[in-house]
Design a protein that fits this description.
Layout (H helix, E strand, L loop, with lengths): L3 E4 L9 H9 L5 E7 L11 H7 L6 E7 L7 H7 L3 E5 L6 H10 L3 E6 L17 E5 L14 H15 L4 E5 L7 H7 L3 E4 L1 H4 L4 H12 L1
The structure holds D-xylitol-5-phosphate (DX5) and zinc ion.
The site of zinc ion has 6 residues, from β2.
Length: 218
C-alpha cells in the first residue's frame, strides 16, 4: 500500500484557508490533517467545528481530524456532522478508550488513537484490533514547528511488530517534525501516513514540497 502524506493545516495561513485547500487538492497529498486543540489537554487553542465546516465544501480529500481535547466523547457527533472522516482521540484523554472507539465507528468514521511521546505503544495491545489508525506523536502536542523526537523510530518498529503479529490492519501515522530528512526512515520503520505541517506550508512551493515528499516515500 502506498504511503500517505497528510499536510497539517495548523501551519497554513489562517487568513486564507482556501489557499491551503488548493495546495492539498492540487498536489499529491492524500489527506487533510486537522488539529483541534482546546487549551486544556494541550497548552494551545487552534480552531474547532465551524472552521472544519467552512473548508469542507472546498475539499474532496479525506479529513483526518486530530483531537487534542479532554473528554472527546462529548463532540463525536459534532465532528461527524462537519465532515470528519477519521477521528483521532488521545489515549491520555480517554478513561474508556474502547467505548470511545466504538462510538466513533458507530457514527461511520474511522477511529484513531494518538499517543504522546511518553506513552508506550504496548498500552494499545488489547485494543489494537479496534483501532483504524495510531497516531504516534513525534513532538509534544500543542504546536507546529517543533523538532522531531528521535525515539519515535523505535516506537514505530514496536508498533509495526504488534500490528503484524495480531494481523491488524491499523495504519501508523507520524505527527510532528516530519521533513524530507526523516520521512524515508519513518516509512522504512513501518509508518503508513506522514503528517507534515510547517515543512509543507512554510516552504517556498508547498505543492512541490508535497509532491517531493510523496515521491520520496512512494
Ligand atoms: C502538533 C500537531 C501537529 C502539527 C505538526 O500538536 O498535532 O499535527 O501540526 O506540525 P509540524 O509538522 O510543523 O511539526
Ligand atoms: Zn496533529
Amino acid at each position: 500500500m502506498a504511503h500517505k502524506i497528510a499536510p497539517s493545516i495548523l501551519a497554513a495561513d489562517f487568513s486564507n484557508l482556501q489557499s491551503a485547500c488548493n495546495i492539498i487538492e492540487n498536489s499529491a497529498a492524500d489527506w487533510y490533517h486537522i488539529d483541534v486543540m482546546d487549551g486544556v489537554f494541550v497548552p494551545n487553542i487552534s480552531f474547532g467545528m465551524p472552521v472544519i465546516k467552512a473548508i469542507k465544501p472546498h475539499a474532496t480529500k479525506t479529513f483526518d481530524v486530530h483531537l487534542m481535547i479532554v473528554d472527546p466523547d462529548r463532540y463525536i457527533k459534532d465532528f461527524k456532522a462537519v465532515g470528519a472522516d477519521i477521528l483521532t482521540v488521545h489515549y491520555e484523554a480517554c478513561n474508556h478508550l474502547h467505548r470511545t472507539l466504538q462510538a466513533i465507528k458507530a457514527e461511520g468514521m474511522q477511529a484513531g488513537v494518538a499517543l504522546n511521546p511518553h506513552t508506550p505503544v504496548a498500552l494499545l495491545e488489547d485494543v489494537i484490533m479496534d483501532i483504524d489508525l495510531v497516531c504516534l506523536m513525534s513532538v509534544n502536542p500543542g504546536f507546529g514547528g517543533q523538532s522531531f523526537i528521535e525515539q519515535t523510530y523505535d516506537k514505530v518498529r514496536k508498533l509495526r511488530r504488534m500490528i503484524d503479529e495480531k494481523g491488524a490492519s491499523t495504519l501508523i501515522e507520524i505527527d510532528g517534525g516530519v521533513t524530507s530528512a526523516n520521512a524515508k526512515q519513518l516509512t522504512d520503520a513501518g509508518a503508513n501516513v506522514l503528517v507534515a505541517g510547517s515543512f509543507v506550508f512554510q516552504s517556498e512551493n508547498p505543492i512541490q514540497t508535497c509532491n517531493e515528499l510523496k515521491d520520496l516515500v512512494g
